[in-house]
Amino acid sequence: MTEIFDQRIVATGRLPLFGFFVAFIVTFVLTRINVRLIRADVRWWFKNVKAGDLHIHHVVFGVVLMLVGGVASLAIPDSARALGPLNVAAAVVFGMGAALVLDEFALILHLSDVYWTEKGRASVDAVFVALAVTGLLLLGIRPFGFEGTDPDPGGTIGRTLFVGGYGASVVANLVLAVITLLKGKIWTGLLGLFVPALLIVGAVRVARPGSPWSRWRYDPDSRKYRRAVRREERFRRPLIRAKIWVQEFIAGRHDLIPPDLRQRKEHRKERREERREDRKGDRREERRERTGTKTPH
């Protein structure tokens, strides 16, 4: 294992990326454990960080850590980059901050505290995307097959053909990626940037029923739309249910009411019941007065 790690990670210069990857995973897992214990209102655990009545979300700490890690990485002189540990330390700090920020991605997206609502699942999706992309980069898979090397630095014709062919390939893959994303296949479009064959599959197959491509090009009575609906019900929905199960297993339920909000709702429900009973009593009293019946004492 040590030899494989040295060959695939250290020798290829991916040690900072590996540090980022590990720090990202560890920070995300610990953050979710922390917020789930806070949500369960465990007495011996920490509480939310507050400044007076202001709840300070952990995305704030994430932004600070990302700034520290990013600026530190830029500030490391080229002469010190060969030391390695400084680069790795900066990448680790940046990975910790990125995990905290993406864990509250839904709050940034909606500009609202939707962490434990159904919309909060967007944060877990963002984390999964970041892990998938980083994992592919760690394996040495580059978007569009880019390696960053010139196959023939001494040949002008060969270099020109290479650049022209690579540019055409990038444009074609981008077009396929846009079509795939418009068809509502987010994961296929993102992973297809690293595995272009997926883009061909995603662009050729029918779009998802609620996607922009479906709204623009599929008539509700068309054969393609009916086939898209059947495929959604047969394949996509079971996959979505499985994905939600994995999300909830890792990150907790996103459709449960937090304890404090549940108490407020129960209190409001009791108040409504009391007001309803008071109105019923008032109506009975009014009927007795109209019929001339005296209220018994």
Structure, explained:
This protein is mainly α. Among the domains are: 1-141, no CATH class; 259-290. Helix content is 71%, strand content 1%. The chain has helices spanning 2-10, 15-39, 58-75, 78-81, 85-103, 105-110, 121-138, 156-182, 186-192, 196-204, 212-217, 223-251, 259-291; strands at residues 50-51, 54-55. Strands 1-2 form a two-stranded antiparallel sheet. 20% of the residues are buried. Keywords: Membrane, Transmembrane, Transmembrane helix. The chain crosses the membrane at residues 15-35, 56-76, 88-110, 122-141, 161-182, 189-207. This is Integral membrane protein. Residues 271-297 have a biased composition (Basic and acidic residues).
What's the helix count?
13
Strand neighbour order, sheet with most strands: 1-2
- Please give the number of β-strands: 2
The Rg value, from CA coordinates, equals 28 Å
Order of helices and strands: HHEEHHHHHHHHHHH
Q: How much of the residues is beta strand, in percent?
A: under 5%
Which outline best applies? flat
Cα end-to-end separation: 89 Å
List the uncertain runs. Answer: none
Determine the fraction of residues in helical runs and give it as a percent range.
over 70%
The biggest beta sheet reads: 2 strands, antiparallel
Class computed from helices, strands and strand pairing: mainly alpha
Mean pLDDT: 81
Write the layout of secondary structure elements.
Layout: H1 2-10, H2 15-39, E1 50-51, E2 54-55, H3 58-75, H4 78-81, H5 85-103, H6 105-110, H7 121-138, H8 156-182, H9 186-192, H10 196-204, H11 212-217, H12 223-251, H13 259-291
Antiparallel strand pairs: 1-2
Protein name: Integral membrane protein
Keywords: Membrane, Transmembrane, Transmembrane helix
